[in-house]
Amino acid sequence: MPSLEKTIEKFALANAYEHEGKAQLGPIIGKLIASNAIKTEQIGLIKPRIQKIISVVNRLSLEEQEKKLKEIYPDFFKKKREERGLKELPKAKVGKVVTRIPPEPSKYDHIGHALSFLINYLYAKKYKGKCVLRFEDTNPTTSKKEYVDAIREDVLDYLGIKPNKIVFSSNDLPKMYKYAEQLIKKSKAYVCFCNREYMQRLRHEGKACKCRKTTPKENLTYWKNILNKFYKEGEAVLRLKIDMRADNQVMRDPVIFRISYDPHYLQKRKYCCWPMYDFANALEDEWCGVSHILRSAEFGEMRIELQNYIKKLFEFRQQEIFQYGRFEVAGAITQGREIRRLIEESKITGWDDPSLVTLRALKRRGIVKETYYDLAIKVGLSKTPTKIDWSLLSSINRSFVDKVANRYFFVPNPVKLEVRNAPKKIVKLKLHPDKPKKGFRKLRINSHFFITKDDAVELKKGQVLRLKDLHKIKILKTKPLVAQFYKDQSLDPKTKKIQWVPAKENMKVEVLMPDAKITKGLAEKTVKKLKVGDIIQFERFAFCKLEKKINDKLIFCFGHR
Questions:
Q1: CA atoms within 13 A on the CB side of 34
Q2: Pick from 405, 379, 406, 383: which is nearest to 392 by CA?
Q3: What is the pLDDT at residue 261?
Q4: How crowded is residue 489: how many other Cβ atoms within 10 Å of its Cβ?
Q5: If we measure between CA atoms, which residue out of 129, 70, 33 comes closest to residue 399?
Q6: Which end of the chain is more exposed for a tag (fewer CB within 10 A), N or C?
Q7: DSSP H helical segments within 289-335, as ranges?
């Protein structure tokens, strides 16, 4: 069954490529059935053969898997390229599309925010339109300069988003006050003095409070008292007068302004009356000239009804609204409150801790900006929720960094190996297997090496193996580990390959892992030439990013395999 074996191999390689080098049985069987390569009733008979091929594929390095995949299944990469590209945006005209990126500067953004921002940015670019970066900073309690700076660094610098305009909503408070006053004069809004719990209970029951009956003249007086800091926090709010019996409870006279005396990072103590999100958002979309609102479905239809109602009150345009499926980050902590707690309890090092999926944590691990763009284009305006897991992210990132990352040898948990009769020489190894123009690195070798502890414990007396890209050896004894140079140096793909570094010329290396553990080892001495921020591949270990150079030691952050 040679043709079937080739089909199994190509699906196994494709599956491994998308899952950090580890092919899985179930999806491969599904592909075989879908392509009519096998029938359902044949699974039991063919399953052992599939498992055997998977075992062979999983023993290959990621580099070897990709090379073989390109040889036997080039259409896999062609299909990947064809899948790229944003779908058409309904009611969009070239040069007329205006989108907005509306971060609230109250936290550090994560990958879900990045995808949402990029969808808006890329659609504006697709139609030669404009994209506005709007800091929705109308909550003085949570909005901080620290987060504004972080957004500039993570979104503008790291992601490379170039908005046509940057807006701070808090700068528009005087305009918002004037529009609120218009509503009061038209008896469309009133000042309410009920406490929060009582107000919520009446809204739930669909009943009006006595404040609803006050006249526009009285409400204007109360409103001016609010602006002049006459009341305490929580003593008075401004509410829309809509319908206390509306099916959508959001429409039951919602609060649109509240009092807060917290100092604002930008406006200081200039204002004490702050708009609620839906009011500020509805006005800002008009003032920013937004034509299309693209956002996650978790926003909800109920809020859309309220914002559209506010726009109608002022005869503002109604934007085209498209809600895409929410982004779910599997196994990751994304809630700002939870991350703050972990930082306070010293369980993580900060917002850039490698265990997180904040943009600064992913940048630290060597996730390049092209990965986010690729993922945003794949997702687009799909209504289906997107589950982002590390295997998906690393698979996409690998496709970019693999093309440019130089290769180096690294041995975690090193064990010394003596190879008797090994030739003393200088070995030239490519910096990149597919790009000879990148040049070579030179390793001076003799009869002493370091190999990984994992490899060392598996070696047996009499075993023949190959030191990767060097020569074959035969194990003489395992304690201490001694081998001899093997006479027959012919290449045999079945011969086990192990990683090594010269015992004399090497460099101490520490790799910070996602679980906060540190992997210590030795790397070839040529890594000393690397610069902080360089992303490289330690062969047969992982892609890593250089963080620090400390005397005779290099500190890396683990990226992915």
A1: 7
A2: 379
A3: 98
A4: 11
A5: 70
A6: N
A7: 301-313
Name which CATH class applies to 409-502.
mainly beta
| C-alpha to C-alpha distance for 79 and 31, rounded to whole angstroms | 15
Q: Could you write out the DSSP letters of every residue in 31-43?
A: HHHHTTSS-GGGH
Is the distance from CB of 426 to CB of 477 less than 8 angstroms?
no
Q: How far apart are CA 525 and CA 409, in angstroms?
A: 9
Q: What parts of the chain have a pLDDT lower than 50? A: 1, 82
| Separation CA 333–CA 330 (nearest Å) | 9
User: Which pLDDT value is given to residue 336?
Assistant: 86
Q: In what order do the strands lie in the sheet with 130-135?
A: 98-101, 130-135, 165-168
Q: Is there a contact between 438 and 431 (Cβ–Cβ < 8 Å)?
A: yes
Q: How many residues does the chain have?
A: 561
| Preceding omega of 2 cis (within 30 degrees of 0) | no
Cα dihedral 438, 439, 441, 442, rounded to 10, equals: 180
- C-alpha pair distances (Å), 150 with each of 144, 370, 386, 400, 492: 10, 20, 25, 25, 53
Distance CA(561)–CA(517), nearest Å, equals 16
Q: 522 Cβ partners below 8 Å, 6+ apart? A: 410, 411, 414, 450, 501, 506, 507, 508, 509
Sequence-distant (≥ 6) Cβ neighbours of residue 532 within 8 angstroms:
546, 547, 548, 549
Q: Do domains 409-502 and 506-560 have the same CATH topology?
A: yes
Burial 323-346 (b: 16+ CB within 10 A, else e): bbbbbebeebbbebeebeebeeee
Residue-range domain boundaries for the chain: 2-82, 173-277, 409-502, 506-560
Dist CA 360 CA 158 (whole Å) = 9
**How far apart are the C-alpha atoms of 479 and 85, rounded to whole Å?**
58
Amino acid at 441: R
384 backbone dihedrals φ, ψ, rounded to 5°? -75, 135
Distance linking the first and last C-alpha atoms of the chain: 33
- Give the pLDDT score at 200: 96
The SS3 assignment for 399 reads helix
Q: Which two tokens mark 459?
A: 């070696």
pLDDT of residue 1: 46
Q: Residue 80 has what pLDDT?
A: 58
Q: Which CATH class is domain 173-277?
A: alpha beta
Chain CA centroid to CA 96, Å: 30
Give the bridge partners for 523, in sequence order.
Answer: 410, 507
The interaxial angle of helices 43-59 and 25-34, nearest 10 deg, is 120
- From the candidate CATH numbers 1.20.1600.10, 2.40.240.100, 3.40.50.720, 2.102.10.10, the one assigned to the domain spanning 506-560: 2.40.240.100
pLDDT, residue 252, reads 98
Q: Which two tokens stand for residue 250?
A: 């959001």
